[in-house]
Amino acid sequence: MKVLQDTPDRLILDETPWFLALMLAGFILIFVGSGLFIMSSELIFGLIFAVFGGGIGTVVMIALVERLQVIFDRKAGTVTIRRKSLLRYKQVTHALQDVSHAELETTVGSKGTTLARPVLLLTSGMSAGRHPLVTAYSNLSGPPKMVEAINAWL
Asked: Residue 66: how many CB atoms within 10 A of its CB?
């Protein structure tokens, strides 16, 4: 996740999984291309190979590739969380005054590594509670940087 804009009035954080999307597109193209090549000698097997392999890649792409944008707007007094995938668009808006701070939510991975994800804490309002900004835990430097940027801006 990276900071797109950091001004006193607005903080915009953005995550677009380009690498994952390109890898899955390559996977789909390899299976569909191989299936089309196989179709020149064995029509049914090539068609099954292309449809099955390309279909699995497409389903995984639909499920996993999602753009996330978090907008903190002091003038409007809102925090907007936008999620966009290939099939849907979801936007949730909270009052900025309800946001207490951001923190890291941690867990231990299967290999004993510490994984984290950023969470917004809302202390009041109808949405009071913990709101994870990303669904997956990570051991990369993105979540701590994101929490630091949010808390510094708040």
From this structure: 19
Q: Give CA–CA dist 39/82, Å, rounded.
A: 42
Question: pLDDT tens across 55-68, in order?
Answer: 999 999 999 999 99
Q: End-to-end distance of the chain based on CA atoms, in angstroms?
A: 18
Give the tokens for residue 84. Answer: 């966009």
The pTM score is: 0.81
Cβ 10 vs Cβ 78: under 8 Å: no
* Segments of the chain scoring below 50 in pLDDT: none
The 10 Å Cβ neighbour count of residue 1 is: 21
Cα dihedral value 89, 94, 96, 98, nearest 10: -150
